Structure formats: structure tokens, C-alpha cells
Amino acid sequence: MASTPSNRPAHHTALPSPVSQPYATCMAFIHRRLFRAFSRWATALLLLAGVACQEVPSPTPSPTATRLPEPSAEATVTPIASPTATSGPAPTPSPTPGPTQVEGVPRNQSLVLAGDEPTTLDPALSQDATSHEYVSFLFGGLVRLDNDLRLQPDLAASWETLDGGARYRFHLRTDARFSDGSPVTAQDIAYSLERATDPSRASPTAATYLGDILGVDDKLSGRAASISGLRVVDDLTLDIRIDAPKVYFLAKLSYPMAAVVSRQQVESDPAWSSHPIGTGPFRLKDWKPGQHLVLERQTGYYRPNVGVRYVVYLFNAGIPDRLYAKGGVDIAPIGADALPHVLDPQSGMGKDLRAYGELSVFYFGFNTRQPPFDDPQVRRAFAMALDVRKLMSAGLEQYLQQAGGFIPPGLPGYDPTSAGLPFDPVQARQLLAASRYGGPGGLPPLVFVSSALDQVDHDIGEAIAQWRDNLGVDISVRLIPHEDYFTRLTDEPGDLFDFGWIADYPDPENFLDVLFHTGAANNIGGYFNPNVDALVESARVERDPAKRFALYAKAQQALLQDAAAIPLRHGVNYVLVKPYVHDFALTALGLPTLEKVSVESKP
Hints:
With 603 residues, the protein is α+β, with helices and mostly antiparallel strands. Helices cover 23% and strands 20% of the residues.
């Protein structure tokens, strides 16, 4: 999963420009299968806390690739137009001989991708989508989400739900191995969770994904030396107790934060994360910063090794669609700005283009901790002064899906009728005048914080122009480099900021609670609303799916009316895939599935 910056937290990201970003950052098309999934999602989520691993959720389709330009006729919401090529015959590219080696491995045994470089390969520190992608190939945890986002056993062979859903007993696989051949034990799982929650580690995601386990909060705050909710029963059995029965808890354990690391390596090698020993389907063969990263299929992996032997990620190798056209890569993420070129029959690439829907939302956030956005009237004024549709670059509107709320299509609890405050510049000026700041003249200097090197994205420039024209306010921009954005944003949110979130597991809790509950680590703007807090807290422990989703619907409506943030759009990934590549897909979380990918002989 990538981002754009490709180092978007797993799963959050700065709002990407809709015209230039790979994978999940070019948003518009949500595949029709997502919209048919709602009733099956509801059943599946109730089963996430099943009494054993055999009682995993029933199949729930994720957005699968759609070959463009066919439109989505079966969608239950107004479909977004699919890209269409101009008329004219498409040429047949002539095969050209390729190199026999790529980054030191046989080309005919390799899948080559245009990729971004990870920030870290330490599961406890991974928070951006790019790092998350590599970590998911190198490491495993007790459970995993499969390609259709169904909960599956991973290092655990099975589990039992005890104490009314407040305790889980995991039974480990006897054939689970680290990439060095050593067995995985319950002690390794416990060590990895203890390490991830060590306050000296300063993990940015430990509280979010492990905070339901009893004792984690005490451990993170330094009040306890260990997690009271963990107990190693024997070498292959581990108990985890949580603070209350929660149907989504098991799915949280699929996040990298819960992945197992090699204690022997971590404690003996300070540089271990540059060449980690993991338990995933691949091992790290080579990583040259700024150049490439090579994965090799792990021969001791417990699931069948049926795919390509090597996966080669090329960094900074050039413009993806041009690399693809020249045969330099087998798969390339495509930004919406490249779609006209790709779909031009003269390019010959249109037939290879796929679109994958993504469970994500991108939005403008307010820093509610300080003036003027501590006043709801000001937030509402800014929301109503913004015509979101016009933020999309001219000619690309048909490829982008405007968001009516924070819960994306395909997620349980999604409401296609949800809508934020309407675009109404007249009422916006009235709200600003009625605020405690008395109009634009009473506002302090405003700064919009965004992620870029030296150029303001189209979306942000257009928004600032609208706020100037419709409210009479001037806003300056402060840019933070992509690689530093998420580590600095919490301390430097400015007055407004761009943000996005990609689901880590299929539950609305992963959006509304994680992003807007008081004190949540990813509540960057410091939003506080006791009514919203009460609704999401009730939803955490509600077992009835209909009642849960009703609580989230009320919470979302309260967030929209209070202008907690301004939702902009939901995500899609455009990807070019060579015809000789088989069994490649992106999940609805934006993660590529490579375990079964095979590559026929290439031209």
C-alpha cells in the first residue's frame, strides 16, 4: 500500500493530489462488489470474535480489479464514470529483448514493480502504508486478513473465545517458523507485544491497536513493567484478555503492531530491522536505500510456495507509466493525471489498466485546540464556504468519488445518503460573522500545513482561493517533506491540515473512533465532542450489528454537523499490470497480494 506521500500511516496519509499519486491516492472508483457487500459484512463482523478459528467471518468480497473502461452498472450509488479511451485502433507493441538479470536476481524469476521506499521495517514502528506493505510480506502475527478481508488464522492454528468474549486463548501452529528456521513460540508472541508497548519504543500505533488488551495503557504510561492481560500458558498456547468484549478486536491483531519478531535477533543486533528475520511469506534478500528492495520467497513458510521467487521494488526509477511502457516494470501504479495518456490507443496500455476500490477517506482537518477553530461556528463557516467538487482538477472529476461522510462505501455502516454541510457561501459568511471572532477581521493569521517538497497541491490551492473569495480570509501554507509529515504533524498541525485514512480492518470503529474520539492518537486536530465520544464508546461493546451501525451513523452525523473535519473523497487505485502477470490484486486496504503471483515468460 503506498501513498503519497507513499509514507502514509498505515493507515493514514496526507491528502494526495488526485492527479499525481500512486496506488491509493488517485481516488474515485469503488468497485460494484463493494456495494453489494453490506449485509454480508454485518454478519461477518459479528463473527470476528468467533469461538474458534473455524468460525471466521463468511466471505465478504473486497473490491476486485475492474478492467476499464466498462462502467459499474450494478452499483447501488451513482457510479463514477470509468476512464474511456479515444477512438482509433490500438497498436500492438512489439516485444523487445529484456535483461536476464534485475538487481542481482534472474529477471525471468522476478516480479518487478515501481515502488516507494519504506520508512522502517520494524513492525512496532510501522505506521505508513509503504512500510506496512513490506512489513506484511516479511512478518506475521496471530491472525491475518485474507484478500477478501476475512479473518484467518496465521501463526495461530486456532483460538477459543472465553469469559463472554473478554479473553482469547490462541493455539499456535506447530509448523510456524522464522526465516532462519527457528520455531515460533508463545513466548515469542508475548515478547513482541511487550516490546511494541515498551514506552521507550515510543510506538506511534501501540495504543490504537493494542490498547484494548488489559494492562497495555499501564505499560505505555510507565505504571507497569508488563502487560497484565498477556499470559503464556505453554510453548504453543497464549491467553490475551481485553477490557471488554469487542467484535473487532481480533481483526486489530492483523495490524503490523502485533507481528512477531525474533527476540534473539532484536536483542543481539541493533541494526536488525535493516535485515529482519520474520515469519512472513517472503524474506528480505537485499535493500539498497534509494535504489531498490528485493524480496525472496521464504522456503520454510507454512503456506504453499506457489508464486514468483523474487519481488523487486525499484525506487526513483522514473515515471511509472513510462517505465511500464518500456518493459522496465511488470506492475505500475498510475496517477489520475496519467490516465489520458494510458488510455490513448497510441500508448497500447489501456487494456492493461485496472481499478481497485479502497476503504479510505481523505479530508481537511481543523486544529480545534486553538483559535479560531475552537469555535464550531468558524468550522461550519469554512465547511460551507468550500465547494468540494471544484477541488478536483478539471477533467478528472469523473474519476474521483466525492465523500458524503467519513465512512467509505463498502464498509459496514456506510450510508449513501450521508451528507455534510451544504456549500452555501452566504450562510458561511453569516456564520463567521456570528462567531466569537466576529468575521474575517477578527481571525488570527491562518496556516495550512501540508505534505510536499516545494509545490502546493491543486486541492489545497483551490481551497485557499475559495476561502479567500467566499469568506475574505487569507491563508498561508507551510509544507513538510513527505517523509517527515506524519511524525511532525501531531506537534505542528497549524490551523488546518490535510489528512487521510485507509482502513486497517473492516469496521467503522477504525474510522470514527480512531480518528475523532477524544484523546485518540490519530485525532490530530484535538477534536472533542462528548456526544460523539459516548456514541462510539457504546458502539465498541454493542454486539448487535444493526444497533452498532446505528450508533456509528449518529456519530458520523454529529461529526458532519459539527464540522469536525471536511470529508473530500474516497479512494481508488489505478494500476497497470502486464498480461503475463497472474493472480495479482490489491485488497480494499490498498495492499498488494503477491503470495500467489506468477509470471509467464516475458517478451
